[in-house]
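Support request, please re-run this one:
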Amino acid sequence: MCGIAGILNLNGEPASPVLIKKMTDAIAHRGPDGEGHFVENCLALGHRRLAIIDLSPAGHQPMSTQDGRFIVSYNGEIYNFNELRIELESLGYQFRSRTDTEVLLYAYAKWGDKCLERFNGMFAFAVWDRQQRELFLARDRYGIKPLYYTQVDGKFLFGSEVKAILAHPAYCKDIDFEALKEYFTFQNFLTDKTLFKGVKLVPAGTYLKISLATQKQVQKQYWDYHFTEPENPDDEREYIEELDRLFHQAVSRQLISDVELGAYLSGGIDSGSITAIAAQQLPYIKSFTCGFDLNSASGVEVSYDEREAAEYMSYLFKTEHYEMVLKAGDMERVMPNLAWHLEEPRVGQSYPNFYVAQLASKFVKVVLAGTGGDELFAGYPWRYYRAVVNDDFEHYVDKYYSFWQRLLSPPEIQQVFQPIWSKVAHISTKDIFSSVFKQHSVELTRPEDYVNHSLYFEAKTFLHGLLVVEDKLSMAHSLETRVPFLDNDLVDFAMKIPTRLKLGNLTEVVRLNENEPGNKTDKYFQRTKDGKLLLRKVMSNYIPNTLTERVKQGFSAPDASWFKGESIDYVRRTTENNRANIYKFLDKSAVQKLVDEHLQGKANRRLLIWSLLNLEQWCHLFLNN
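Re-run finished. Output below.
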């Protein structure tokens, strides 16, 4: 786990060693254990090291093959690197270190871009081929590790974070209003855009190849999710047995480390199951939980604190347990640091993740997280049930697109974006939404097919956003986060599980949609014990039924209550300020009307308020300075 950066001057101009060091200095938090640079003619590669496997100087990067042809700067972990090393050794390759970096490098030297199909892990890396004068960039299947790039004034710049690109004087900071419209629709970016104009995020499961000799650039997707309904499903007992085996294997694979490893432990089954398996192999593993002060919470938020369930699991698994409690005001306190490391707002109110990563980093260098369990095993049934009976794909898109307008509806977008509407009116967020499915070629004839379409959408977009946020906020504290649910074998298996083994109420919901339209179906769209049925059955072997049968709950602070209570001054101070940065491009009266709806208890606008607060801080940090 590290940070990478690079410069390729497409015009042949010599790359600057001073500038590549500035770029790696900007992401020094990602790798406090060392730095390295390779500069040759028009190419510069930079690296910041967080030493996890083979802590010796042999792991120094950028790393070259023995013949000097290939140079790599790499961020991530390849969990099957020992198996690949044995295979490469049988082909005559010799290794000087015990690192997965060297295995990745020689795998690329042997198989080229086909090496990506062999890697089981998380990664973002750059390889320079000195012979062919070709730069190769790649990102892992799921997008666990980020990789940004831009091209400006004949220079191709890239880095693990946008801050590396900002450190180069060729890039001039500006906001992308089209991306802003995308964000205020979905609270996420479904395309490869970012809020920084001209800066893109390499899509998950994709590589870029830039040739100096031909001046050609190639972008290719080498992997994608494919959720399908099996034609001849196995017996449920076989699915249970295989999921149990693959889950054990996934957790075991990700325990490889030369430094101490811990685990996040909430009250849910995902992190709890991972901790249960890890604790079998690592006695007294350290675990970490973030709770919330609920003295001023109301409504459903009074159940948001999961410390009691986490403490019980810590007792069962005999972990060395650490907790912290967040209060109203902690968001305001952390917002400058949070926005700086997050670099742009994405999917949800993520500041609790920042705090729990800070806690974990005081004790361990690597932590396991349960991210991905919901998206693979259908943990959000109230979402999928909204679009299970449709006339065709367009009908499905109409219903599901409407649901995923998380911040503003199209009429509200036009009102809020009035000052810049002429610049964004041509952007169809519905077309952006629909384009997500262009690679998921599933025949849509059954409700199960539409559920699999929804699972695909959430893995491609919502899960990807969660992974980007998790990387940024853990690496802010030089902490590596691993996600065992995103093991290749486990993911491949999960995508082929019959829908009936994930969702229990699908038949009933279909009947209601067909025969009882309207508000009578609303009860199925609320919080439910449905979802992740197969996973719950497997995990009941390790976690008490009182926990595996709990109602699904996300990791969120009671901000809806705090925003109209103890944090109301912070909200008003920001959104009522005529000189706020956001009002250089958003309409103040339209924004204030929506915020007031929340403060007066007329609507729950907590996600919008969070986004406005975060965006204001982003403008101050990245546009004003």
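Residues 444 and 450 are 6 Å apart (CA to CA). The mean pLDDT is 91.
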